[in-house]
Design a protein that fits this description.
By secondary structure, the protein is α/β, with parallel strands linked by helices. The protein is built from seven helices and seven strands, in the order βαβαβαβαβαββαα. The longest helix has 34 residues.
Length: 250
């Protein structure tokens, strides 16, 4: 499997994938043929270069349309005979021409629970990184239940975080609850969010590696939720939690 990795930030998952291939933990995958970054200043760029990977920079604002952006991404992948794309901390909306060309051959990792069937989850435009962790914490504490979060792998679709979920790994959250949203609530969120993010990160890395291994072996994992992530009574709490996360991590 000729693998391309798409990044926009620190490249920690990319680093884990490259090390897994180098140490033969991840088998049937060639050394990564290209790392594509949407940000020329991303920390992952120099990490990839130091690990001997070829790097391409594709800045979304350099292209007049999403389609042109996609054409450039496809040209990069076609030149290197890329079979599969792993989005790891990739922030731009993936163009539809890329999604169509790599249907069922492009995955994305997400640091929080998603619900591709019913929606009303911890994804969508602007929901990435610490915001996702913060929103999940806020939701759990305000709801006074469901003290857990997930790392999620899903197939990429033409909308943010709406593709079919194929793999998840769950992690416990601290059990705190609040009767009102005040300064103490905000302070607790700011304290716990980076702690949870650090704990979830290696779980994300392992989940990506496991998923890529299954796919390299010819098997696409599958996952189905037995119930909605947020029932109809909890949608307002979910919306509020996401707004709080956006506020605390502008």
């Amino acid at each position: 499997m000729n693998l391309a990795i798409f990044i926009s930030g620190s490249g920690t998952t990319m680093e884990a994938i490259l090390n897994a291939i180098k140490t033969s933990r991840l088998k049937n995958v060639h050394p990564v043929v290209v790392v594509v970054s949407s940000d020329p200043k991303a920390e992952g760029v120099w990490k990839a270069q130091n690990l001997g990977c070829e790097v391409e920079i594709t800045y979304r604002k350099d292209y007049k349309s999403l389609e042109e952006f996609g054409q450039q991404l496809l040209a990069i992948c076609s030149y290197r005979s890329v079979d599969f794309i792993s989005q790891n901390g990739w922030l731009p909306l993936t163009p539809s021409n890329v999604v169509i060309e790599y249907k069922n051959r492009i995955i994305n990792q997400h640091p929080g629970p998603l619900d591709s069937l019913y929606g009303n989850d911890f994804g969508g435009k602007g929901m990435y990184g610490a915001r996702v962790i913060c929103a999940r914490l806020a939701y759990s504490w305000l709801k006074r239940s469901e003290y857990w979060t997930e790392a999620v792998i899903h197939l990429v679709s033409e909308e943010f975080d709406k593709g079919e979920i194929i793999n998840v790994s769950r992690m416990k959250l601290p059990q705190l609850s609040f009767s009102k949203i005040d300064q103490v609530f905000y302070e607790q969120l700011k304290q716990y969010t980076p702690i949870i993010q650090d704990k979830l990160r290696p779980i994300e890395h392992e989940l990506v590696i496991q998923t890529l291994q299954a796919i390299a072996n010819g098997l696409i994992p599958s996952f189905h939720r037995k119930r909605r992530l947020a029932d109809l009574k909890s949608i307002d709490i979910l919306k509020q939690a996401k707004e709080i996360a956006m506020h605390l991590y502008p």
